[in-house]
Amino acid sequence: MTDTRFGDGNDAIAWAAQDAGVNYIAHYPGSPVNRVINVLEEQELEQKYIINHALNEHIAALSVMGASLCGARSLLIMKHVGLNIAADPLNYSAVTQIKGGMVIVIGTDPGARTSTGEEDVHWYAPQFNLPLLEPTGVQGIYHFVQQAFDISEQIRLPVLIFVPGRLAYQSSLVTRSQTRSNMPLQEFSFQKDPDNLINVGKRAVNNHREHILRLQKFQENSIDRFSTHFNTLASFGVVTRGASYSICYEVINSLGLNDNIHLLNIELTYPLNINSVINFAQNKQKIIIIEDQDGFLETMIKREAFGLINCAVHGKDHFPVWGELSDTLIRDFFIREFNQVIEAISNENSLDIKINCPERPGSFCEGCPHRSSFYGIDKALNDIRQQQGKHSPASIGIIGGDIGCSSLPPHRTDWLLCMNAGIGMSQGIAHLLPEQNLVSTGGEGSLFHGGLIALQSAVENTINLTHIIFDNRSVAMTGHQDSPTSSDKVDLEKLLQAIGVDHIFIVGAFKSSHVTHAIKEAQKIQGVKVIWVQGDCALQPNKEALRRFKERKLFIHNELCDNCSLCFDTLQCPAIIKTVQDTLEIDLHRCRRCTACLDVCPNNAIEVDDCHEE
User: Do residues 211 and 94 make contact, with C-beta atoms less than 8 angstroms apart?
Assistant: First the structure.
């Protein structure tokens, strides 16, 4: 029985897992695959699978391995940078001979559209020695995820599937068909298998050998994991993978080059069945490999086909290794290569889609607790600098930055790298420069991801460090997943005390003066200090926040305002706007009534009208 419905790549991943009878799902939220878990949650009780909202990718990977060893079909979901965190257990996953199908879906991000940076994680496939499938469309995502469970059980290896943002957010009709129902929990069991699971010494070497032999056998039997298009007799060949296939296909069509080009799309990127490429190259004079990022497929082909292909093979000598491949880049390449042919072809169907789209950087939402928190941090560091003397090197305020909502423009921190880089790098600076005017920052999501052990390390090393936890009770950047503080199952203050943090300041995010005061007091104390800044995400309002929005109004009295513009230029609240008369007013359609502006205003020019005063 089939069912056709409209959805995007995230929907396709979730639907395929459901229709394949998935039993266990673990994830750490990350764009562009952050919405998969939301789709799966909608039928969690009905389909009786278990979801583990893991606190980092390392934990998620290990839990999925455990479920698979019990015979459960298991799904692991994360974004590309999360693969770095999960790399340690996944290096071992292949040698354990899993039992239930284990599928690892990675959302990649060429062009860094939803990430702080881009990184080509294809190189993990040969490091792990795991099969890697790359779909070319939304329906392909559905089919590959479904098939991956079967492949995994056949070869007893986890299977990787890479889904770039271009496909994760693309929408189309998806035809569903259930291939297997969920197995009941009582049918699962764990069997002791020391030869397989205790991977040390000689056992590790033997298991690695068996793993490679299984992968080679799979490679030999996967001759049909590719597709060819257009003119098989053409002397010019194009090789693609993943999202680059659909762009190339459309560009070749629109330029009328169907007769001039033979296109090969590789679906099984690793292990590469080189015979399909060798056969494709038989009558070619030139082959161009078109793929995003580093040129992984080009490297594999040139390595495996060395001395076996006679024609010229090109790739990254024509296309950049950074950013996302665009229609324009690929179109310009084909126009240069086939200029005379294109001039002779009618251009009635050619497309002119050059659009100058300005970059739209993100920003804090109205009522975001991070906005007023950073205002308080900046003021504290500036006040301390004034007190110490502007020319003192130690007085220069340094803010260690973490990724998440707190990393949005205007980028108040001094670096933005990976999760927990705020507290991690700050330790190195603070260890060398204990008198440096420095604070590290990070959200509560990052704290439980890996920052807690970093904080404990700072305690153990007696580093003089002030760390600020932005607790908005939500992993907001990736879709508002619950954090441990939003469930109220964890007493964070007691947890911090348990790891040796003796100085804890608890302040409200919307009182920037309180944040400033806490930082100044913390800087007087030696050792590790934590400032726990509490303020709920504006997009996850609690009952009190909803009441305030409904019943509270804020006004600016221009006769009291001296145009200092602290609320407009420094706090930068989007709900405070300038009128044509160059006065300030509050747009009540956008204002979240957080009252952060009241704490900032030095002239008491902002009034709160609230029939239920706190």
Answer: yes
CB-neighbour burial class of residue 228 (10 A; exposed 0-12, middle 13-18, buried 19+): middle
The answer to whether the Cα torsion of 130, 134, 138, 142 is positive or negative is negative
Q: What is the pTM of this model?
A: 0.87
Which residue in 412, 403, 438 sits closest to 570, CA to CA? 412
Instruction: Classify residue 399 by its DSSP letter.
Output: E
Task: Return the closest-CA partner of residue 324 out of 466, 476, 115, 76.
Answer: 115
Q: What is the pLDDT of residue 348?
A: 46
CA atoms of 118 and 160, how far apart (whole Å): 19
Q: Establish if 436 belongs to a structural domain.
A: yes
Bridge partners (DSSP) listed for residue 468: 441, 531
- Dump pLDDT digits (tens) for 512-526: 999 999 999 999 999
Q: How many domains does the chain have?
A: 4
What is the b/e burial string over 14-42, where b = at least 16 CB atoms within 10 angstroms of the residue's CB? bbbbbbbbbbbbbbbbbbbbbbbbebbee
Tell me if 123 is assigned to some domain. Answer: yes
Q: Are residues 212 and 253 in the same domain?
A: no
Q: Which helix (DSSP H) or strand (DSSP E) does residue 112 occupy?
A: none
262 phi and psi angles, rounded to 5 deg: -115, 125
How does pLDDT run across 439-495, given as a tens digit for each residue? 999 999 999 999 999 999 999 999 999 999 999 998 888 878 888 888 888 999 999
Single residue among 328, 344, 360 that ends a domain in this structure: 344
Q: 36 with 171, same domain?
A: yes
Task: Check whether residue 497 and residue 594 sit in a common domain.
Answer: no
Beta strands at 465-471 and 438-443: parallel, antiparallel or unpaired: parallel
Report whether pLDDT(312) > 60. yes
pLDDT at 355 (0 to 100): 67
Of residues 383, 449, 382, the one with CA closest to residue 421: 449
Q: Give dist(CA 226, CA 268) in Å, integer.
A: 7
Same domain, 214 and 81: yes
